[in-house]
Amino acid sequence: MSSTFTKTLELLIDGGVELVVVGMASAIAQGAPLTTMDLDIVHRRTPENVERLLKVLTAIDAVYRTDRRGIPPGREALLGAGHQLLRTRVGIVDCLGTMALGGVDLGYEDLLARSISLRLDGREILVLSLEAYIEAKRGAGRPKDLAVLPTLEATLREIRARGG
Amino acid sequence: MEPELVDENGVDMTVIRWFLDLTIEERFAHLDEWRTMSAALMKAFREQHLHEDS
To answer: Which residue of B has its CA nearest to A124?
Structure first.
């Protein structure tokens, strides 16, 4: 049986949504033994891609998780640079218009150069590289970000030792 | 030379190596296990405190 993240990503990829997986899920995908509840993605903010994303989000009953009224995300919000924090019937999904890296907010196109391609259940997914994620965590600088740096750095060191 | 078991920051390298040896699907599956375990622990914690408060 597929896990929550695998299932959610399969739905997004099969729905033709162009995205980069960022956040802790990107590090876990690359082998960092950490945990998270939410799947963070930065999606391409073209009208066509937002339409595809909205279709998948509607199919999985996405609503804002910070609002008790059960409001679904709208097209305009997903076209913007902000963060849409959602809960769905397959788990928590955060759709980010941009993410902060190196002191600037980067969108999908900017993140492509800082991403790597992985295979998930026969599908290609783009994830933020571990190097870039470490940079983002260091830049965020909050205690919760700094706390995971030793594990992220040890993972990166081991990947490099293995020739990755 | 023997591979290090714990690095200079105290990170258990055996866990790092074990997780790296898994497929992405297996890594994500472990997250679900953690969530289930975490939810059970939270439930037990709440029930214990409800019991203590009553």
So the answer is: B24
Q: What residues contact A64, with CB distance under 8 A and at least 6 apart? A: A71, A72, A73, A84, A85, A86, A87
Q: Would the CB atoms of A33 and B24 count as touching at under 8 Å?
A: no
* Cα of B45 to nearest chain A Cα, Å: 19
Q: Which residues contact A162 (CB under 8 A, 6 or more apart)?
A: B20
Name the minimum distance, in Å, from the CA of B11 to any CA of chain A.
6
Give A87-140 as a DSSP string. Answer: EETTEEEEEES-EEETTEEE-HHHHGGGEEEEEETTEEEEEE-HHHHHHHHHHH
pLDDT, one tens digit per residue, over B7-51 is 999 999 999 999 999 999 999 999 999 888 888 888 888 888 877
Regarding beta strands A91-96 and A83-88, do their DSSP bridges make them parallel or antiparallel, or are they unpaired?
antiparallel
Contact B27, B19 (CB under 8 A): yes
Query: DSSP label at B12?
Result: B
Tens digits of residue pLDDT in A2-25: 899 999 999 999 999 999 999 999
Whether pTM exceeds 0.90: yes
Q: What are the residues whose beta carbons fall under 8 Å from the beta carbon of B38, sequence distance 6 or more?
A: none
Distance from A76 to chain B by nearest Cα, in Å?
31
A68 Cβ contact partners less than 8 Å away, ≥ 6 residues apart: none
State whether residue A159 sits within 8 Å of chain B by CB: yes
- Residue A21 β-bridge partners: A41, A127
Q: Does A37 touch chain B (CB under 8 A)?
A: yes
